[in-house]
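User: Teach me something about this protein's shape.
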Amino acid sequence: MLKRRIYMTLSKWVDFPYTYVPLVIGARQIGKTFIIRQVLNDSFENIVEINFVSNPEYCNIFDGSLEVDDLITEISVRVPQVKLVPGKTAIFLDEIQECPNAQTSFKPFVEDGRFRVIASGSLLGIRHRQPRSNPVGYMDEIRMYPLDFEEFLWGLGISEEITGKVRSNLTTKTPYSDSILKALEKYYFLYMIVGGMPEAVQTYLQSRNIQEVRDVQKIILVGYRNDITKYSDDSDKDKINACFDSIPVHLSKESKKFSYKIVDEEFVPTFKTYESAINWMKDASMVNLCYNLDSPSQPLGEHKVDRQFKMYMGDTGLLTYILGLNVAKSLLSGDTRVNKGAVTENIVSQCLVSSGFDLYYFRSDTLEIDFILQLGTSVVAAEIKSGNNKQSKSLDSFKNKYGVKRRMKFEKTNIYTDDKGIEHYPLFASAFIRDIQPDPEVDIDVDVDSFIKEFE
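Assistant: First, the predicted structure itself:
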């Protein structure tokens, strides 16, 4: 059984007073249903599961009165063999995007308090049907992702105690021993191939066979195509497929900026032509977009250029599958330079997103920085190096031109800071970036008592 950190988040909801409904959202097949069932089975005597995809007629439950007594009556009639015991029953609304009105019931259920409700959805934001009213204040959206690298390590049998020590080295900037460094690099290269889709990870753990993992990844990608056919507008289907197919080509270029000419060479398309198709993929969590900044200034979000971006696969294992078995073999041997570092940069983007970062980069006529981050109180320029080039000309120029002092390189190396003040980390450290000391130049500790006295 794969251990997921979201389990603790949902367990806290069970233990705390009932004030909101968790709505777990994310890409298809990342384990949303499984983890919710696990939490509920560990916490409640009775579970009522309502899946609006496998049983679309259940939507009728929420078409009439949303009084809790009326809803409970409807559920008891329509859902066979349920036990609805107040205080001991949880109601799980799965694939809720198929029944928008079910969201409207969150408020009455919370205010009534007798039955805990939790929900999940895969394609929220894509369908334009709206509930009767949004349960503002009674719902908490919880974003779920494929397994991150630490969860992957847990699956391999590496304990939280050990991964805690891995993170501690980053916080204290203590280099790893050669044996630990080589082991973590090996696992990270494996993570690039297997990815974080739970079925792919579970298949690897059971078989240790990469070909069997690739068979699973193929099925997942077929599922993506089926979702495009089923859920997208007819006018967007071909555009979505074309954009999705172009991702490996874009990432295998020196400059990975998304170019519409690569998508369609027959005419010169525009952002407007593909805007709805790109937004569909983003909303479905199939891809992560990394936006260019017009200035590396805080707050970063106010400086993003909406029409200039790089497009990464949401799961790097799926990208590696598309790139082919030879790429997987190269990664197993430790060669991260294949396809101009496409997989290396994609895995870092995935690690950053699962750590809660919005993705930004900086590109001007003379300069390009792979990622721009807000870490603590600092703007950080980060470069990803798949080869052995130790020069940092771009980071040096970036500091001189824009005054960004904190600079990082993630590469095949150990932890150290060079004589120019550039911090160097092994590639896998991008998965633990929250544990890198936020801002060594600023002490953000606050004496709360003294602070309050200033205003008394």
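Now, about its shape. The mean pLDDT is 92. The domain at 6-143 is CATH 3.40.50.300 (Rossmann fold). If you'd like, I can walk through any region in more detail.
User: That's plenty for now, thanks!
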